[in-house]
User: Fold this.
Amino acid sequence: MERLPKAWKTVLKLEPGWKVQLRKPHPCGNDWWVVLRLGADLRLQCTKCGRRVLLPRRKVAQRLKQAVPPTKEEEDET
Ligand SMILES: [Zn+2]
Assistant:
């Protein structure tokens, strides 16, 4: 079985509300995204322009710089 890189483990523990920073910035210049939905593909929303994209987990793992869990206040909003 293929050995999983560390970033892949991080991707596996992601849940809606997490913020991720990706290596490849959005055309709007922002590189932070909010995780909206999880599945075979992750639905991410750009924190600057609000554009939503679908990215395969593997792509997210390849581009992941860091992942931040939601703060308490943000959890209460949902
Ligand atoms: Zn954007």
Observations:
- The pocket of zinc ion is lined by residues 26, 28, 30, 46, 48-49, 51 (CB under 6 Å).
- The longest helix spans residues 6-12.
- The two ends are 38 Å apart (CA to CA).
